[in-house]
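Appendix C reproduces, verbatim, an entry submitted by the partner laboratory led by Prof. M.T., so that reviewers can inspect both the input and the predicted structure.
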Amino acid sequence: MSKKITSFEELNKVEDFSLVKEIVFKDEKSKEFLNIISRCENLEVLQIYNTKLEVFPIEILELKNLKEITLESCKISHFPNKVPVNKKLEVLNLSKNRLKKIPFSNFPNLRKLNFQNNLRISDIPDSISALSNLEVLIANDCKISNVSTQIIKLENLRHLNLENNEIIDFPNIQNAKKIEEINLISTGLKELPGFIGRLENLKILKIHRNHISTLPKEFCSFKNLEELYLQDNKLTELPEDFQYLERLKKLYLFDNSLAEFPISVCELENLEELLLNKNSLKNIPEEIGNLINLKKLFLGRNDFLKLPNTIGDLKSLEVLKIDNSRIREVPNSFRNLINLEHLDLGYSRLETIQEEICRLKNLEFLDCSHTLLHEVPREISNLSKLKKMDLSRTYFTELPDEITEMKNLESLIIQYGKIEKLPENIDEMTNLKKIYFSFSCLESLPESILNIHELEALSVSKNNITSFPEGIKDMKNYKNFYLY
């Protein structure tokens, strides 16, 4: 029966080393285990974490059945001069070490190679071409500034991660027709090559936090692309044929320089997440209502003044963020967002919580903080599933009595406001766990607050309260307690 060994102590007790198939060590201080491991002739998986080795232990490469080696956080700085070729090894993880070079050609049958967080590695050399069977290459958070053109020979590559390097130019992987995911986040990219559109099996492309200002026309040739992360670039527009990315489900375009809403996006009927916040959008087109499968929509930090009535056609929408916007009201159709759970209107010019908002029966989170609210309507109680509500930095002086009908509310936040009193029967909100009313105008707390047994946090400091209900300091569940 095969064994998995998880400590040096356990390894020392093994009587028949031929039964050991897997060894996983963490925080092992002694290096003596290497001598014993070399006797485990049928070992297939070796994983060593956070152990000081300094030099790659070549003796383990003599194990003919070894398929996977992980030497993570082991302070390895180099390989010995002579490294035997190992044709059995399929997985090599050397992440979080101090390596400068890796003898790629000594591991010709690798399928997965991970050397992330080796800050002395500055390039991927020509020898990478020896890894013709490689499917996964993870080399993020190094100091790579040059990727050899020989990477073109990795025709079986399916996953490439070069995040947080300084490569500037897109690696020449045009023959990697099987590739499904590319991660080139924060690499200094300024442009994309035309061949990128020929990577027809690509499903996930992460190229955010770069300096890309335009996309090539070939970009719209992706047939299977499902997730596209373009945020934090310098895009001013999208290619005309963008609608042909018909399988796209996630599109992140926030923090760019888009002045006009890319109308072609509205034809992506399979889109589920669209993030367009932190641009300069002047209007939201009526065609946005075509995105019937959209679940998450971020439109905050733009320049538009209103939402189109067709926003109500997004019946699958679960999360909507319109924070830091210039809108004063929501359209009548807003009530049709029957699946909306999270609504953020904070830092907008909203003047009232309209009836359309109060009809969102499935809403669980509502942020109307930093707005122009002068009143909270009694219809707010219709939000029976609401769990968290933030109305901080607004102008109303009291809450309607009906608010106590919100039995599922867990967190009520109204800080830096004008509110003068709380409902006397606030204890009817039996699930309240957090009450934050600091820096407001409260003159007293109702006695019934002592009966809210789920309450964990109470913050009412910097108000006008001169006396508190007797026994308030003895409430058992308090984790955060600020009265003065």
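The longest strand covers residues 20-26. Additional entries are available on request from the coordinating office.
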